[in-house]
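Batch 3, record 17
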Amino acid sequence: MNPQTRTTLVLTGLSAAFLALAVLFLSNLSGRPVPLPPIPLVDTNFLSTATVRRSYADLERAHEDLSDFDCYACHEKGKPPPLRYDTNQNLIVPKEHSDIVMGHGSHGRNNNCFNCHDETNLELLQTRDGRQVKFSDSPLLCGSCHGPTYRDWEAGAHGRISGYWDHSLGAAERKMCVNCHNPHSPHFPSRQPAPGPHPLRPITASVEPAPYH
Amino acid sequence: MPVPAPSPNPNPVPPDAGMSRRNFLRTSAVVTAGLAALAASLKPLLEMNDFPTMERFLQKYYKEMTPEDMAKVIKRIEAEVEKQYGIRPHVRDLKPMDGVEFVYCLNLTRCIGCRKCVHACVAENNQSRNPEIQYIRVLRLPHGSLDIEKAEHFYAPESVPEKGYFYMPVQCQQCKNPPCVKVCPVHATWQETDGITVIDYDWCIGCRYCEAACPYWARRFNFTKPSIPKERLNPDMAYLGNRPRRQGVMEKCHFCIQRTRVGRYPACLEVCPAGARKFGNILDPNSEVSYILKNKRVFIQLKEEMGTSPRFFYYFDV
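Prediction for the assembled complex:
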């Protein structure tokens, strides 16, 4: 083979190789990015910092409807409403108060409205030792039975706080017992969880970790 | 001696021409093909839209910046964010406060596993929505065990809490002895005096050593350009905190620097419906966290045996 033909061959080969490379790069055969599956934006309800319930103090502060607390619109002053029980000693909730579920305490023994409400003045609450407590000061009543929890709450270790941890820069707003617990059935309500994580590669089967040797 | 006659050359090269027509065509065919291949191979660069500006390229290391340098950098970041999202952000460079060391306490008795903290954190800290980056992972564990290797991450029941399970949110533990800081080859992540381990997103080279070093899986990597819808952008930003990140850098929980360094509670705490999250200054004997560590049953620092000494404590009500 004379040098002329060899040069021609080599150069033709090089051109072909380069063109093939160009086609390869342009068609992007090796590394086409996988399109991301759409992830819906999370519902803004999950971002809400509102508490589970609103307390009497919240309603009062917001100048909202307090007619639920206006007992003497229906009840008669100076005449405590009678309590009725079924044969199992469960309180029969009158139909006017049908929204109330009597679930405070796990044995159904806390079945007397006047354990907490004041029978002489229905617009007040009372502790077991006879102190009267306003609706807006209800933690005092809760604390009269739930001492350790009240102590934790006072120290900030129980319950919701928002605002400022540094009290020299701003106020911390401490939520009250009734902001989270319904006093008639105080167990914290269950709720729908926010959506879980969306990994880049969906996990199909749970991987059992290898046993330790 | 007779000189042998030169053999007749079929393509005599004229001495004045450097190249014959054929040679020229042959060479240019190769060069054209080569250039085409080169151009094709560089095509992905066209899709790159985040070339560093000279300003960003020449930016100094965070700890070496003067206040004037920082002011310039903040102006640049604000302009970049405004260009990209159409919202003028408020970026600050917040320094740690004197006499403050942050500690986080999480009440495992109270946590109901609703994942609100996860999404409040995403909204506050401008994490990418797709692909999804989340700093907090809530683990579901059966009662009576603490094998987090077997925890369920993807639980999706109708309602929580579920019977027989407890929930354990895990995020950056802000270790006193952070392995992630030790492995960073460029010192792009370090521990500040208030205990927060921060990342300078402009200094990070994206080697992901810190991700491998972290025993809590707390660090996240931006594999693609983060996508945040305009209407969900939080314009209250901090340089070491929640300013938008670029592709190819690490990020992680920083105890909401933009909030906590101006005295506010972190976002995950304020959104918790159960009040399971507690945060404060451990150097203040009257803070909530001091009370908890003194009086409650603080049962773990997660993976205590690693010697990382987290500033994140899990406790029980009992």
